[in-house]
Amino acid sequence: MNVPPHETTVQSGALLRIRDLHVHFHIKEGVLRQHQATVKAVNALNLDLFPGDVFGLVGESGCGKTTLGRAVVGLAPVTAGEIRFKGRSIVGLEGRAAFERARAIQLIFQDPYASLHPRKTVCDLVGLGLKLHHLAEGYEIDERVLAMLERVGFSIDHMYRYAHEFSGGQRQRIALARALVLHPELIILDEPTSALDVSVQAQILNLLKELQREFNLTYLFISHDLGVVRYMSNRIGVMYLGSMVETGATADIFRQCQHPYTRVLLSSLPSLDPDAPHRGILLEGDPPTPVDPPPGCPFAPRCPEARDRCHVDKPALEQRGDTPTHLTACHFPHLA
Amino acid sequence: MTEDTILEIKNLHVRFPIHIGTVRAVDDVSLAIRRGEVMGLVGESGCGKSTLGFSILRLLRPPGEIAAGKILYNGRDVVTMSERELLAFRGRQVSMIFQDPLTSLNPLFRVGDQFVEAIRTHEPRVKPKEAWARAEKTLQHLGIAPERLAEYPHQMSGGMRQRIMIGMGLVLHPGLLIADEPTTALDVIVEAQFLDLLNRLREQFNLTILLISHNLGIVAQMADRVTVMYGGRIVESGPALAVFDNPRHPYTQGLLASIPNIKLDQPELKTMPGAPPDLVAPPPGCVFAPRCPQVMEKCREKRPLEFNLSGMRVACWLYA
Predict the structure, then answer these.
(1) Do A270 and B258 touch (CB under 8 A)?
(2) Are residues B187 and A224, on separate chains, in Cβ contact within 8 Å?
(3) How far apart are CA B143 and CA B146, in angstroms?
(4) Domain segments of chain A: what residues?
């Protein structure tokens, strides 16, 4: 496999480095639960995240994007492979080291109704991390909580209210304050706006963008919505069935995507212009399950352009066109 | 009511009396759907679009009630129908498909049996075998192998189940199909397949569809005309092209501007400040006034009338 280009140009400058990551789950199938099967949720995946990056990770449900995010914070079992954060391995951390990771890497969940304790005040919710990590004590906690709440658009009036009193968009801002108050170095946002209405989504996305610039944050932004990802990210990764099929600068992907799956995904989006009627590339069949995926290219069974080789030989994620940062896992990519 | 109007809603009020007051979920809404068209009904959560859909079939959950107004289907008022009349009306005249295809199908029965039940409830004289054969025929139109009627819902994918739901909605050849967020549970690729199918069925059977969705993209692709709701009221209604290309109401303008566009590099999204209104105590004038960038004195005091602008209806004082 080719050496990913970042490795040579930016020596160990990656904040997060994932190499050949596998997250497998063993399940029992069949009526009698006798048959063993393996769900390969993440399958031989590589990814580099650099400080200040907003990396948009897209794919359909079941492609493994959420599992990948969870593996980084230790919430999903790593079967094989390497996850390095600031050069150090963070697979299988325990005790103090795991505790420190919990501060440095924050996770924002999709459903703000489930991620905030409804019977705790906002001050408690946001301040607990400060207390646990001994970052502040006494009145200083309240001061720092208030400062952060004000930054995300609340006032002192909101500080002693309960989480259940807030709307979805407000709750997502509370979750954000709770993460930011610990000065994390990486924030994993797992579909942070999919539970919100579009007008509220726009408010949250703009806030996320502002905060990213202000604190020079690094985001791993997981989403199924390509419009949102285009707006937010400077780099994009497209996942299919546990594998990264294409990755590159946002501008490059939208200008000239190389993988057939990315093309299908982009053409499936309904346009807001009624004059441009839907002329998507329609795929036959349903999305496959990651239970015992095919040996060759994961997309081959549905790919409109698959050839014999695709069914047996899994393509590596490597440079195919002229842009060294644009990598595609396809034997027959679309090149300009 | 003109010849080609299949459904006409006149001054409909739907209320939910709850302990803290009365929620005016649908507040004086009038709307006409023409035979053979796809009418898109859009708006954000809580704007009353689904409540309006449920009202048409008189399927409001208590304490929801129709407080006033008329719902005329081919001239007959649904609001005054008896339970007996409703049984003949639902499914047969107007059918509805819901957002979540998993909870809409009974997991304990084969899909085919559920078709048979639906058909025989309305036409008791049809023999089970005939009903099954009719279900098979419907499945062919949906591009599903007839053998799959013998399967249980859990054996099917989400997209397949939603196609089955469409089939159930169509098997009795209703005059109007209400689709409430039919693709919200589906991924984009499956959504594209589903919309393609709906478009083909529409041409084949000359369907009339009320498409309720928060997803403006699918409405832009499917609908002939679009109605925009906000705070229980209709703010704008007109041909899809006009509404999307040249929205008149400040809410519609704000809504369209707040969607990240897949085709553009946007430095910043336009946002509307504030949050949707409290429908227990809506603002006295225009419901959108507290968030409106073009608000005037009059907007805060008087509820806007509806103005006709070359084929569009806009409830906004800007056009007085």
Answers:
(1) no
(2) yes
(3) 9
(4) 6-119+162-335
Residues of A whose CB is below 8 A from B187: 60-61, 224, 287
A227/B260 CB distance under 8 A: yes
Residue A156's identity, in one-letter code, is I
Confidence at residue B3, expressed as pLDDT on a 0 to 100 scale:
62
Q: Are A60 and B189 in contact (CB < 8 Å)? A: yes
Query: What does the alpha-carbon distance between residue B277 and residue B230 come to, in Å, rounded to a whole number?
Result: 9
Cβ within 8 Å of residue A224, ≥6 positions away: A58, A59, A60, A61, A191, A194, B187, B188
Sign for the pseudo-dihedral over CA of A167, A168, A172, A178: positive
Two tokens, residue A55: 């990396």
The CB-based long-range contact list for A307-310 (8 Å cut-off, 24+ gap) reads A307/A331, A307/A332
CB B245 within 8 A of CB B252: no
Counted residue by residue, chain A has a size of 336
Helices and strands, counts by H and E, chain A: 11, 12
ipTM: 0.84
Q: What is the CATH number of domain A6-119+162-335?
A: 3.40.50.300
The C-alpha atoms of residue B20 and residue A293 are separated, in whole angstroms, by: 54
Give pLDDT tens digits for A254-288.
999 999 999 999 888 888 887 776 566 778 766 77
Q: State the pLDDT confidence band at B194, using cuts at 50, 70 and 90.
A: confident
Closest CA to B223 of A8, A218, A119, A277: A277
- What is B5-84+176-184+205-311's CATH number? 3.40.50.300
Coil, strand, or helix at residue A41? Answer: strand
A21 near A71, Cβ under 8 Å?
yes
Alpha-carbon gap, residue A293 to A60, rounded angstroms: 16
Buried b (16+ CB within 10 A) or exposed e, A139-175: eebbebbbebbebbebeeebbeeebeebbbbbbbbbb
Give, in degrees to the nearest 5, the angle at Cα B273 between B269 and B277: 130
pLDDT value at residue B98: 85
Which residues of B, range 212-241, sit inside 8 Å of A by Cβ? 214-218, 220-221, 223, 240-241
Give dist(CA B197, CA B186) in Å, integer. 14
Please report the pLDDT score of residue A316 as a whole number. 94
Q: Do B269 and A287 touch (CB under 8 A)?
A: no
**Contact call for residues B103 and B186 (beta carbons, < 8 A):** no
Q: Does B261 contact A227 at a Cβ distance shorter than 8 Å?
A: yes
Per-residue confidence (pLDDT) for residue A278, from 0 to 100: 59
Whether the CB-CB separation of A323 and A260 falls below 8 Å is answered with: no
Q: A179 CB near a chain B CB, below 8 Å?
A: no
Q: Which residue has the tokens 């593996």?
A: A71
CA A202 to chain B, closest CA, distance in angstroms equals 5
Candidates B187, B198, B292, partner chain A, best to mutate (most A CBs within 10 A): B187
Cα-Cα-Cα-Cα torsion B42, B46, B50, B51, nearest 10 degrees, comes to: -130
Nearest C-alpha of chain B: how many angstroms from A308? 24
**Angle B209-B213-B215 from CA coordinates, rounded to 5°:** 125
Domain ranges for chain B: 5-84+176-184+205-311
Please name the member of B189, B191, B195 whose beta carbon is closest to the beta carbon of A264.
B189
